[in-house]
Amino acid sequence: MAELLYQGHGSFRICTSEGAVIYVDPFAGEGYDKEADLVLVTHEHYDHNQVDLVHLKPGGRICRAADCLKDGKYRSWTECGVKIRSVAACNQNHPKDQCVGFLMEVDGRLLYLAGDTSETEEMTTELSKEPIDYAFLPMDGIYNMGREEAQRCAKIIHAAHTVPVHMKPGALFDEETAQAFQAEGKVIMRPGDTLNW
């Protein structure tokens, strides 16, 4: 069985059914006790790149945005049995040439971990065509899009489920924003909650 642990803010730990461990944007919360095969970093802001929290397995590695986006080309690859595709992420606080989000196919589920972003053209031209099971969208309204823009993006992407994350600077989670967010198939995950499939 695969598991996604929401650690809070924009941090996630994914364990595959085969035992691979992948962290995305380590910074927040608990759950850094498992050694990692792979650490994915969407961009180099301090609240997404605390890779020292993670212990790597022998042969484990860290893959940063700069490794996934070169000369305007987004990288796609398979690692640990997971298909990974970097995608556009940007806004006024996050330059497009320095940030990525990730599409990850883990044990038959397609996850969209948006990183820090606002609405992008690629949400319409690319992501809307993907059968995304879970989209994790930031919505702090300061460094990223606010709740209303995130709702519009959720409608464009039309994932089966959308999870509000990265909701309030300095907080792992914000209940008020999560409850107010409206999207078809909305799922609220609080720090420490898991998805299993």
TrEMBL record:
InterPro entries assigned to the protein according to its UniProt record, in alphabetical order: RibonucZ/Hydroxyglut_hydro (IPR036866)
Protein name per UniProt: MBL fold metallo-hydrolase
Any Pfam family hit: Lactamase_B_3
Signal peptide (residue range): none
PANTHER family in alphabetical order: UPF0173 METAL-DEPENDENT HYDROLASE YTKL
